Amino acid sequence: MAANLNPAVLTESLARHLCGPCWQSATTLLGEMSIDLPALAEDKKVNLKQALGAALAGQSDKFEQLDTFLKARQLMSDGPSPYAVRFKLPPTPNESTGEKFLAGAKAKFWGVAQYVQDSKLALRALRHPTILREMTLALPIGGKTAFVYGVFACYQPISPSKGGIRFDEGVTRDTVKALAFDMMIKNAVGNLPFSGGKCGLRVDNTLLTREERELLARTFIRSMGPELGPRRYVPGPDMGTSDLIDVMADEYESVHGEWVPAVITGKSIARGGSEGRPEATGRGAFHVFQSYLREHVGRHSFPNGRARIAIQGFGGAAQPFAELASKDSNIVAISDRYGSMYNEHGIDVTAAIAAVKKTGRLPEYNGPTDPADVLFLPNVDVIVPAATEGQLRADNASRVTAKLSVEIANGPTQTDADEILRDNGVVVLPDVLANLGGVTVSSFEWKQGLLMEEWALATVRERLETSMVGAYTRVSAAQQRHQVDFRTAAHIVALERIVGQLTPLYR
Fold first, then answer.
1. Is the pLDDT of residue 98 over 70?
2. Which of 41, 74, 56 is nearest to 9 (CA)?
3. Quick one: 239 exposed, middle or buried, by C-beta within 10 A (0-12, 13-18, 19+)?
4. How far apart are CA 69 and CA 62, in angstroms?
5. 73 burial level (CB within 10 Å; 0-12, 13-18, 19+)
6. How far apart are CA 24 and CA 30, in angstroms?
7. Residue 191 and residue 263 in contact, taking contact as beta carbons nearer than 8 Å
8. pLDDT tens for residues 328-371?
9. Measured between alpha carbons, how far is 30 from 28 in angstroms, rounded to an integer?
10. 367: phi then psi, degrees, rounded to nearest 5
11. Under 8 Å CB-to-CB from 466, ≥6 apart: which residues?
12. Domain 95-260: CATH superfamily, name plus number
């Protein structure tokens, strides 16, 4: 076997072909090579790589033939694997996951109906999306046509709907419906001039070139037709699209023949974006955190008057929070996807941010190996889940020793974990409140686009603080009035606003 041929890479690539559009030719090749894989005839996806590995074991002479086959298909990627399939539709995600996500989002909202008068009609109106559209986009790839599944959902469209565009292989109809529902709640909590919307395309970004992703973005904009517009659906960046926003804005303007800066948010400054947008989520979470500490100054006792904070996830949202919080608190633990760092006296946040920007990694890894374990460290007063959803669950929530959680990530705490944290006296500042900063500054960008204005960074920061403190004040008032936790209070505030908007329509 040639020295530069990696058996693991070859078998993984062949496995992908057997599960993808080239499975027939790959199966024929195996037959020509006298490789007998009877199990694959029944189900090509069961233990596929293990079966291939076992079949090819000790047959090094076959690998050069495999190498020739894969190169002949010209399906090589620019990515790290020289045999990665250039494009294949991702497998259909588990729909039950999306169903559970949607059911959980609705259960929290329906659960606060007892606190809000005249809510029955509004809840009936929100049982299903006001707009739900599924689509199939044709994308030419390597001389062939691939078909990409997409879905758009919108709740309560009496004002423009707002929510991100997601390119991800986990997109399902119910997941997009749940994300749109959550955006409706978040916008209502923030008293923003939007209802909730979301769009997702089911595609594996890692298998597309930059040019193909841009083509997909432009195709999506054209496919949305009249449903997209400054007073209809105003999208923004989400998973897999943050670097495509300017492309989408350009396509909309090309189709309509005019500059429309309010049609999409998250743009670069040169394309009509807003100052302060990259830092908005973290800065907004900091204002909520500070508002809580000011209101409950006697509730928490911190060593030397400085809170000890552990942050899970150190991306663009967590960094501004850490930088601002480190002035009056000690950031004792930070984690990223590779591990974590810990310093009981406080981490040099400026140095950590510089290292991440330069190398993509923290400057050192001397903390827990599992990045999520920073949430369970002893001698920590505040935890900040800022990574992905579902990090705090029923099987680990009891390990939290901190007494305050600031949710920068979307949905980091599962419902059953919420109950455990509440029973253990942990106060949770929920995501629908704490991470409002991003969509708040997006609303500023939208307003600047409508008015053809450019606001200075100081103006954006001042208005963001005013908006976040106002949102916290409304939620805190509901929490005290009804004697409930902050998540329930946030949903009460949202339902009250939505009832006020919808009830007059259905009397």
1. no
2. 56
3. middle
4. 11
5. middle
6. 10
7. no
8. 999 999 998 888 899 999 999 999 999 998 888 888 888 888 88
9. 5
10. -105, -165
11. none
12. Leucine Dehydrogenase, chain A, domain 1 (3.40.50.10860)
Q: Are 281 and 437 in contact (CB under 8 A)?
A: yes
Closest by CA to 282, choosing from 290, 292, 272, 271, is: 290
Residue 299, pLDDT > 50, answer yes
Task: For the chain, give every domain's residue range.
Answer: 7-72, 95-260, 273-507
What count of residues does the chain have? 507
Residue with tokens 């307003």: 447
> Average of pLDDT values for 438-461?
95
Q: What is residue 139's predicted lDDT score, i.e. its pLDDT?
A: 83
Phi-psi domain of 346 (left: phi exceeds 0; alpha: psi -120 through 50; beta: other): left
Residue 332, phi then psi, degrees to nearest 5: -90, -20
Band of pLDDT at residue 85, cut at 50, 70 and 90: very low
Mean pLDDT of 88-99: 56
pLDDT of residue 447: 95
- The CA radius of gyration of the chain, in Å to the nearest whole number, is 25
Strand 404-406 with 233-237, pairing: unpaired
Which of 166, 223, 226 lies closest to 197, judged by CA? 166
Report CA dihedral (11, 15, 18, 20) to the nearest 10 degrees. -130
Domains 95-260 and 273-507 share a fold: yes
Catalytic pick among 88, 177, 198, 267: 198
Side chain identity at 201, as an amino acid letter? Answer: L
Give the architecture (CATH level 2) of 273-507: 3-Layer(aba) Sandwich (3.40)
- Torsion 42-43-46-52 (CA) sign: positive
Residue 86 pLDDT exceeds 50 = no
Contact yes or no for 180/151 (Cβ under 8 A): no
Give the DSSP per-residue string, 208-273.
S-HHHHHHHHHHHHHHHGGGBSTTSEEEEE-TTTTTSHHHHHHHHHHHHTS--TTS-SS--GGGT-
DSSP states along 7-52: HHHHHHHHHHHHHSTTHHHHHHHHHHTT---HHHHH-TTSSHHHHH
Known active-site residue 198: yes
**Does this model's pTM top 0.90?**
no
CA atoms of 454 and 274, how far apart (whole Å): 7
Residue with tokens 């919420």: 418
Short-list 163, 170, 226, CA closest to 201: 170
